[in-house]
Amino acid sequence: MLLARVIGSVVATQKHAKFQGAKLLVVQPCVAKDGVLTESGNTVVAVDSVGAGLGTYVLFTQGSSARMTPMTKDSPTDAVIVGIVDSVEMGAATVEMPQ
Amino acid sequence: MLLARVIGSVVATQKHAKFQGAKLLVVQPCVAKDGVLTESGNTVVAVDSVGAGLGTYVLFTQGSSARMTPMTKDSPTDAVIVGIVDSVEMGAATVEMPQ
Amino acid sequence: MLLARVIGSVVATQKHAKFQGAKLLVVQPCVAKDGVLTESGNTVVAVDSVGAGLGTYVLFTQGSSARMTPMTKDSPTDAVIVGIVDSVEMGAATVEMPQ
Amino acid sequence: MLLARVIGSVVATQKHAKFQGAKLLVVQPCVAKDGVLTESGNTVVAVDSVGAGLGTYVLFTQGSSARMTPMTKDSPTDAVIVGIVDSVEMGAATVEMPQ
Amino acid sequence: MLLARVIGSVVATQKHAKFQGAKLLVVQPCVAKDGVLTESGNTVVAVDSVGAGLGTYVLFTQGSSARMTPMTKDSPTDAVIVGIVDSVEMGAATVEMPQ
Question: How many domains does chain D have?
Answer without folding.
Answer: 1
